[in-house]
Input
Amino acid sequence: MTRARCFATIPGPRPLPLLGNSWRFAIGQKPWRTRNLDITLWNLRALAGPGGTAKVAKLFGHPDLVFPFCAEETAKIYRREDSMPHRAVAPCLKHYKQELRREFFGDEPGLIGVHGLQWSKFRSKVSKALVAPEAARAAVPSLDGVAKDFLDRMESLLDENRELPRDFLMELYKWALESVGAWALGTRLGCLKNNEANAKEIIKSIHGFFHNVPELELSAPLWRLYSTPAYKNYINALDSFRSLCLKRLTGKGVCAEIAKKCGDKVATILALDLLLVGVDTTAAAAASTMYLLAQNIRAQIKLQKELDQNLPKSRALDSKVLDQLPYLRACIKEALRMKPVILGNGRSIQSDAIISGYQVPKGSHIVFPHYIMSNEERYFPLPDEYVPERWMRDNSNDTGKEFAKGCGHSVQIQGKSNGSICEHAKAFSAWSKQKEIGIHPFASLPFGFGRRMCIGKRFAEAELQLLLAKIFYKYKVSWKYGELTYSVTPTYVPNEPLKFTLHPRKPTE
Output
């Protein structure tokens, strides 16, 4: 520690007297707009230098934020954490649960926005029902039913050009919400029906919660002085969620199992947390995977070959079928590498530490910028190339021959160097370089790590696999509107309308 550099020397934006650095987010000029925090992270990455660390100090209501842009440092911090990992408290959510609605929550604060002994006790009550692989496997039949209904709805939404509507992202929110209701609450919420007012109100509440988080948490906390519009929307959304969970708790689903052991209150609070984190995130992941596969015909064709060989033609999908789809899982992993639904995870360290050679005091909040690391050349060669093969554990010789065959086939048919050849060549280059350096286990962590890893990870993966398998088995998906851009809400979501074109396809034997 004595040889480490002083904490004050960590590079970062200079805070102003009294105003600190919160003024940057309040004014919202580049690169400090809350909807463009991805740009902010790249700016901090430039300040940190290769493998370095940056700092954002003096934010109202928050400890200093430290950003280690290094997978090795991330691994050290994660692995040294104790049995009750601390995240920086979300002041608004803490205020809602522990003050505004304390008569309901009491000593059961849930999993989000809390840490320490209360969090650990609550997690111990609910983790077995959520973390066990058998729990997600048992949910596959109900999730398959939701995916089937959603495909029927997709077909009905297509226009005369077989394009999906401008608000297709909203449709994905409905699918994700219906899926969470199916496995968590054991009920169908009716989100996939036309003109379902209740579903629209729920989704409106989801946006009311998420879209106001950056303003409430990063800008000056004016909500502590008076009820700002963002604060009102946030509280109304949480109240709507709570009411929904109380009304829709049934005798089925994961939360019913929790209710039998721990009571309806614990089950309701868990359902609330699952809704808050399981809708925006899964919908965004589905959208990004569809977009990247639509942009990469090589990968889409390879996925469809896998689906044609393994999907049953006359019965529902089950967990055994999903186990036979490694390339589909790789497609999702690669999409979450390039476009993770959350830009980073965080820990509030409980003892002094040395990070990238700097002294970092106890209580500092460490933000792991996974979005940056998973899009850096040093960890993922040709990071802008969508190459699911990075994640495959198959025989290297077979994969190399497959790439060579693809390139040769393109030359034979088309007779000249063109985009198709480049697609195979770039993918082969990225894959071969990745094989040489391997994948650092802490360079891409879309679901987090350790005891505070996303507790619904297995369910989210099952939802995505079922939906994407059905879509790409039934359709060739194309995209003709240029690059899709993203904003932070704080989920990383597309800006442009998701007007995918869907052409029916016949599975090959």
Notes: Residues 486 and 493 are 5 Å apart (CA to CA). The beta strands are 53-56, 65-68, 345-348, 353-355, 358-360, 365-368, 475-478, 486-488, 492-494, 501-504. The chain is about 55% helix and 5% strand.
